[in-house]
């Protein structure tokens, strides 16, 4: 029995829609109830929120396209100003019109112009008898535009006196959108994260035709057992599944195991999945490089720059703070004057290093250092003058949160906080480049 039922839409279209949006049947059913029939006025504005890769954009695009509902789909990151956004909506309305082959240039400077041109565009397409849907993806960008843009979209149906519904898609909750002056409250709807069962079902649908569905489903089960605790992103998991499946099949291709011999298959794929754990989200190497690495049986470190940390992007001064922290952790205090002062005077070379100091400091590990020493080294290695503002201190706190620095001792010490640098020399070299 199909899960999606609605008297206004053909059963074949609903059946196709259900097959295209697995594990989101309840959300689609709710949206169909809100939309109603084509000629009915729907809710003026709908706010859909949920974490990254929870299916918001895909479900809306698939729903509107499969049921052939008139719609406009705009990404607010691409059209980041109010003028670009309003003009793009009008251009898409024009281009979808069947009576005009070429799109005329659209100039829309104000919201009043948009309302006037929108009425003309809707009238030219004879859309008065059915609901037009305007979907604004990444809608949190609307908060950076003029103050009247968001309230106007929320009640666009009232302003234009047309059958239009605005759908806002976002990763943040509505409470962070609501203007201080108040506005029309949209219908809010939450898309929860996919559970491990949902991910198993969705990813198993992409099995290659040359292998059985059970074989690929067992592979997906192994993949999720490794990555589910650190990665819930469906797109990333789908990428990892496609990237590592060839290695999983190697024993079967060579004839060393059959499709049901899960123990041998697991022992073959386990070390390669551990290597792949180092590159989750970071995209440090291309898919072709990763496949070549698997084929050659090499280690990830053999590729230049491949490390789970060397490509972490940090703010400008955070990089200098991290370099200064590394120097403070691995250089003795008595060498600061020698390394960081231009006129440090004469230093006797004899007996400068004690016997126990001839051991490499990298073997002894990082030493704690006070905050004032960190800032003093920072001021000496940065070319321009740096003021000790709250921004600098907040970046130190961020480095501790990222576990690139660690705080040593108690916070209530009279001599201030002390830190240790926890990153490796390769990391610092990459930052310094």
From TrEMBL:
Gene3D superfamilies: P-loop containing nucleotide triphosphate hydrolases. Coiled coil: none annotated. SUPFAM superfamilies: P-loop containing nucleoside triphosphate hydrolases (SSF52540). One of its GO terms (cellular component) is nuclear origin of replication recognition complex. GO terms for molecular function: ATP binding; DNA replication origin binding. It is found in: Nucleus. Residues 314-433 form the Origin recognition complex subunit 5 C-terminal domain. Pfam families: AAA_16 (PF13191), ORC5_C (PF14630), ORC5_lid (PF21639). Component of the origin recognition complex (ORC) that binds origins of replication. DNA-binding is ATP-dependent. The specific DNA sequences that define origins of replication have not been identified yet. ORC is required to assemble the pre-replication complex necessary to initiate DNA replication. Belongs to the ORC5 family. Component of ORC, a complex composed of at least 6 subunits: ORC1, ORC2, ORC3, ORC4, ORC5 and ORC6. ORC is regulated in a cell-cycle dependent manner. It is sequentially assembled at the exit from anaphase of mitosis and disassembled as cells enter S phase. This is Origin recognition complex subunit 5. It comes from Gymnorhina tibicen (Australian magpie). The gene is Orc5.
